[in-house]
Records
---
Amino acid sequence: MKNVLPITLRGKLKLDSELKKLIHEDRPSVIRDIEAARANGDLSENADYDAAKERQAWIEARIQEIQNHLAGAEIVDTSKLKSQTVIFGASVKLVDIEEDKEIAYQIVGPDEADVKAGRISLISPLARALIGKRVKETALVNAPGGEKEYEIVKIYFE
């Protein structure tokens, strides 16, 4: 049985958009590049041909990867979620106890994680430490720089 990974509605729409671009723009473009490089003659020493074939392989692999992720995904509309504990899709306001600094993250699927945008993967150490916790509880995270402790200030859904 395949593992089903949750993905937010926003994450699904982003993957759908990337897939559409790859299929309808990037794939035809690279095919044209390959045809143009073939027209230049000897393929054994044709750097343009080699580069286009490599790009084609990357595009096809990415298309397959996205299709597989979408096929095995459970789409979650986070605006309809409610919980008193941290769950997938929750946005969480935290206080880094050591630095007394407030930060906020939304817990999302691995495909849509972007720490700079405030989205952390469900499988990240921080998210795993937060899941199931309530407001005012603390989460201890084994981070690369050592243990960090966070207090949950707010749990909300957008």
---
Amino acid sequence: MHYKRILLKLSGEALMGNRKYGIDPERLSDYAQEIKRVVDQGVEVAIVIGGGNIFRGIAGASKGMDRVQGDHMGMLATVINSLALQSACENEGIQTRVQTAIDIDEVAEPFIRRKALRHLEKGRVVIFGGGTGNPYFTTDSAAVLRAIEIQADVILKGTRVDGIYTDDPERNQEATKFDFISFDDVLQKGLKVMDTTAFTLSHENELPIIVFDMNKKDNLQKVVLGEQIGTKVNL
């Protein structure tokens, strides 16, 4: 096994499937099955999910809403997604725990690093909800922060495209894909991988990032096995 402990970052929009908003139960089930395949091989899996399928704080702020209030609403959206994914994983027989950066004791554990590590060591999937618990920070930043805290080997950013390109491949058919790229080259070329705070934090802690297509069957397993899937960003 190439990676023993991973942090999987999923966007909230990924859970929509072909819908315009909300959660697609079929997409959720597909993801749970992908996660089960790697868990069954002994990989320790932690997950951070965004909330953009339900609410985006920055979008609310652009329409006059208080940014802090909007970000708090976005954090709650990530908790909804985390609980949905937990349910889907448990339907596949995976032991799962949700930990949140904001206290919602009735539905999830608070984030406690040592407890998260123990869950992972026991083979449980840990889903981190609530972002960092602070406004003005994205779930990308939360993913990198949690990955560092749990000493993950890699951040796997599951998207709907199969890696990092010279331009948006959905708009520019001539865009070319990178198989490998350094942190410095990403910055120099102005490529969008994560927000600047998250990307810098990952760079400073020498934590590699792999961007790959999560919607293609078995891709997660192939990445964990070390196959050349997506784009790897490292030093």
---
Amino acid sequence: MNEKIIPTPGDREEGDGHACMSRRQFLLAGGAMVTLAAIGLPGEAEAAPLHALKAAFPRTKIGSLSALKKGVPIDFAYPYPNVQNILVKLGARAGGGVGPGQDVVAFNQQCTHMGGPMQGSYKDAYQALGPCPLHLTTFDLTRHGMVISGHATESLPQIVLEVQGDDIYAVGVQGLVYGYAAMTTKRA
């Protein structure tokens, strides 16, 4: 690029104690970079969509559709006996929901920030779990357990559900339960 830049009265010259490149020169040079970024570099591959990782566990019956009442959570342990979760019919369509209204979801009950216990903190009016007793994090159960407010930066681990007839089965965990380095089917 052998382009000669003609200085204007606002441009600064080298040696006057300022940066070597004027604001105008910087913007002109930056325009070429923005153009390259917009059209892509030669040989650049398109990115494949990302999919959430899910740890698969044995299929376990955790409840039935006919036994669920809107806003009344049911506690269950999955995938290990000491990992406590809730199954709840929200009454509104939810991310990852199953059943006729896609409103039945299940989530782990440990805060993702510091593992605070959130048993009994489901708020039906807000379709939220929390606040956590440690730092007041609250999670939205209609949006895959994402953080509404508080210190946590990760969504609640969602229990992946399947429905067969009237039976509800837990088949996996989407996310990492606090205190576990990995969610695998093998226990140490």
